[in-house]
Amino acid sequence: MKKLLVLLMTMALLLTSAAAEAPAETLIHLGETITVDGQPITEDVTAPVHLTHVVETHADVPEELQGISNRIVTITAGGSYRISGKAMDAQIAVKAPADADVRLILDGVDLTCRTHAAIAVYSARDPRVAGEYAVTIELAENSENLIIGSHNAAATEEEPEFDGAIGSQVSLGFEGSGSLRVDADNEGVEVAYGHLTINGGVFHIEAGDDPLNVSEDGVGVLTVNDGYLYSAVKNAQGGEGDGIDSNGWIVFNGGTAINLAHPASQDGGIDSDMGSTINGGMIVGAGNMYDPIESDSQQLFMMLEFSEQTDDLIVVTDAVGTPVFAYDFPYDYMYIAFSTPELKENEPYSVYLGGEIEGVEQDGLYTTITAYTPGTLLTHGGGVAQQRGGMQMPADMGAMGGQPPEMPQGGMFDFNAQRSAFASIDLNELLKDADLNELLSGKDLNSLLTGFAITDLLTEEQIKAAFGENVDVNALGGFGSMGRGFGGGFGGGMGRGMESSAEVATTQFILTRGNTAFSNVSAITK
To answer: What phi, psi does 162 have (nearest 5°)?
Structure first.
C-alpha cells in the first residue's frame, strides 16, 4: 500500500509540474463587446491586451468608408492567444517586444476590417532564417475561420505599410489543421520582411492582387511544407497579380497548392525573383507568363505553354493510358506548371484537352480519378508558342528602355491590338541619330535586358573576349529572371515565350531532369 501511495503521489507531482510548465492561453472573444479571459477588454494601453479606436485616413480608403472607426485589439506581450467570435471593422494588432514569441490561435474567427489589414503584425521576435518564425497563426482543430481585410497604402515612419488582409513586418508561420478563408481587396497574406512558412491548415485565399506574397527583395523565402492551399487572384476587370509570389524564393516541400494568376494579366501562377523549387507535394500554377521552375527541384514537374489560351479540362496519362494528373481550368490561361509524386523520368506521357472524367475533385484538381474517356490529344513542339498578350520584341527594344505604349484610360492595355504597330517599327531607323550612351545613362541594364540571353546580344567571340576563352557560353544564362519582361514591372512582366520543345510536333511528352517544359502545345493536326 505504501508503495502504491508513493507512486500515486509521484504521478500527481509530475502532472502538476507539466501543467505548470504548459503555457497559459489568453482567451480573446470578438463580438459587440470584446472580452479578454471573460472580462470586457480594457482601454488601458499599459495592459498586455488592450483596445484602441482608429479612423483610417490613407489614400485608398473609399469615400463610403471614410470616418469608419476600427476597434484595434492590440497585443503587446509574448504568449498564446486563442481568438474566437465575430467582429466588423476590427483588427488584431501584434506589437510585441523584439524578443517575444507570439501565437495567435484562430478558433472560429469571423473578422472584417474594411480599411486596413484585419491581422497586422508590427513587431515580435524574428529568427530571420528561412523556414523559422516566432509569430505563429495556428488554425485550431475543426475550426472554420474567415478573414476579410483591406490594406493601408500610405506608410509613414510611424505607420508601416500593410498590403494584405493579413500582413506582417516579421517572419510568419501557419500551423494547425483548421481552415482559413481570406477575402482581400488587395493582397491576401503578405510578409513585408522575413519569411512566410506554411506547415499545415486548409487555405482558400482570394485577393485583388497576389494572394500570397513575400516582398523583401532577394531575402524572403515562401515555404509550403504541408496543408492545402488554394490561392487565386480575383477575376476583376483591370486587375493583376500572381497566384503565389516572392521577391526572393519559393519552395514547395509538400502538401497541395493550387495557385492561379489573374486570367487577363501577364502574371504567373508561381512567380519568384530568385527561383522556385518543387521538392514534393501536389502543385499547380496557372497564368499567362513563363516563370521557370528550378531544374534542381527534387520532384519532377511539367510546364506547358499552350498555343492559345484555354479554360478546358487538361488530363495527363502515362504510357498505358492511366491518368496521373487532371485539372479543370476555371479561366483562360496560357501556361500551367504542375508537379505530382507520380511523374517519372524518361517515361512517355500523353496530354489531353477535355473528355469525360469521373473522380474526386476540389477547386478543379482531381485527387482521385476513377474513369476517364480521352478528349483531344495534344502535341508539342514545332515552333515557339505565342504568349497571350506578349510580344516577341527584338533585342534592340532593350536599348530603348523597353517602355510599352501608355495604358489607355479606364481599361487594360490591349496587347493584341498593338502587335502590328510594334512589328512595323524600324528600330534601326528610329535610333540612327540617337546617342545610345546618353540614352542608356543611369539605366539599370540588367533590368532593361531581363529575359534576354547573353547570346541574344553578343557573338560567341565577343563573349569569350569578355569572359575568357574557356567560358561555357551555354551556361551563362540570361539577364535577370527568365520570363520577366522589359523593366519587369509592367502588368506583372511581359515575358518571352519558351524555346521550342521539339523541332517537329509530337504527341509524346517525355520528362527528364533537363527537359520539363513543352511549348506550342495544341490540338493534334491531321
So the answer is: -125, 110
CA–CA separation, 141 vs 514, rounded Å? Answer: 42
Smallest CA-to-CA distance from 223 within 241, 247, 202, 249 is with 249
Measure the CA–CA gap between 276 and 270, rounded to whole angstroms: 8
According to DSSP, the residues that pair with 275 across neighbouring strands are 249
**3-state SS assignment for residue 105:** strand
pLDDT tens readout for residues 107-129 = 999 999 999 999 999 999 999 99
Q: Which amino acid is at 121?
A: V
Binning the chain into helix, strand and coil, the percentages to the nearest 5 are 15, 40, 45
> Under a CB-based contact definition with an 8 Å cutoff, are residues 50 and 44 in contact?
yes
Residues whose CB is less than 8 angstroms from the CB of residue 152 and which lie 6 or more positions away in sequence, other chains included: 56, 58, 60, 115, 116, 117, 159, 161, 162
Average pLDDT in the chain: 83
Phi, psi of 436 (to 5 degrees): -65, -30
Question: Position of cell 495527363?
Answer: 316
DSSP reduced 3-state for 320: coil
pTM confidence score: 0.78
The rounded radius of gyration (Å) of the Cα atoms in the chain is: 26
> What are the domain boundaries of the chain?
23-207, 395-492
**Cell digits for 190?**
503578405
Count CB neighbours of 386 within 10 A: 18
For the chain, the distance separating the N- and C-terminal CA atoms, rounded to the nearest angstrom, is: 91
Give, in order, the Cα–Cα distances in Å from 225 to each of 176, 343, 524.
12, 19, 38
CB 96 within 8 A of CB 75: yes
Query: What grid cell was written down for 25?
Result: 492561453
- For 389, the grid coordinates are 498578350
Other residues' Cβ atoms within 10 Å of the Cβ of residue 50: 17
CB contact at 8 A, 521 and 306? yes
Q: What is the pLDDT of residues 117-172, one digit of tens each?
A: 999 999 999 999 999 999 999 999 999 999 999 999 766 667 899 999 999 999 99
List, in sequence order, every beta strand (DSSP E) within 240-317. 244-246, 249-252, 256-260, 270-272, 275-278, 282-287, 301-310, 313-317
